[in-house]
Amino acid sequence: NEDGAMNSFLEFLKKYKFTVLLLLAGLILTILFFTIGFWRTLLLFVILALCFLIGYLLDQGGPEGIREFFRKLFSREK
């Protein structure tokens, strides 16, 4: 029964979601290290992190959210 197999697979994923997720992340990192090298992989993740941050800030407050983030980041007030 395909429905039973799918339900059992989804239960497995729910129970071990972080194990599966981190295993996939490790697999992707290993493939990237071996194909494009350490420094290019590192650069890729830095660029992805910056794009994620900008997208998150835009989702939260639009262009003003980005301005406010940098205003807080570079302000001298504590």
Characteristic key phrases:
78 residues, mainly alpha, 0% strand, 91% helix, single chain
Task: Explain the layout of strands and helices.
Blueprint (H helix, E strand, L loop, with lengths): L1 H14 L1 H20 L1 H37 L4
Helix pairs in contact: 2-3
Report low-confidence residues grouped into runs of 5 or more.
none
- Judged by helices, strands and strand pairing, the structural class is mainly alpha
Count the DSSP helices: 3
Backbone shape: flat
Hey, roughly how much beta strand do the residues contain? Answer: under 5%
What's the total number of strands?
0
Q: What share of the residues lie within helices?
A: over 70%
- Give the rounded overall mean pLDDT: 91
N-end to C-end Cα span: 62 Å
> What's the story with the biggest beta sheet?
none
The helix-strand sequence is HHH
**Radius of gyration over C-alpha positions, nearest whole angstrom:** 20 Å
What do these coordinates show?
By secondary structure, the chain is mainly alpha-helical. It has three helices and no strands. α2 (17-36) crosses α3. The radius of gyration is 20 Å and the shape is flat. The mean pLDDT is 91.
